[in-house]
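Before going further, learn to read the protein records used in this course. The integers have meaning only within a learned vocabulary of local backbone shapes. To see the layout at work, look at the sequence and tokens printed below.
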Amino acid sequence: MTKAQRIAAAWASLPAPELTDQVRLLVKARDAAARAVWSAVREDTVIAARVRGALAGLKAEYRGHRDEAMWLMWIGQVQQQLAVQQTAAPVLQSKIEDVPALEPVVEEWTPRQEPTPPRPASDAPPVLFQEPASTSN
């Protein structure tokens, strides 16, 4: 068992506040050892869920902090590392011969003209503009 796997296994039994402290230290470390731990955490879905919860708590903790942008970036990077395996979809093997040939579809575009509904007559009286009266007598 590697050191990263031992750390991930130890995290399974930690209470939430201590786990959050450990996750905070590892998020800040951002080194090869930290990446190995995230990889080991990713393999166990229960530990990964607890760590994602701790990361969400850290995000909330650093909102409004003077170093918020830096911490949110680091936490986002860790969340991506934890999600790598989950988002990988199986690749379908197919042969080019199995794909049916598609015919090009060419249609002439004509703008759609919708009839304009008739406007109801207005109840407002027409406005009449007049020149101001001259003030010279």
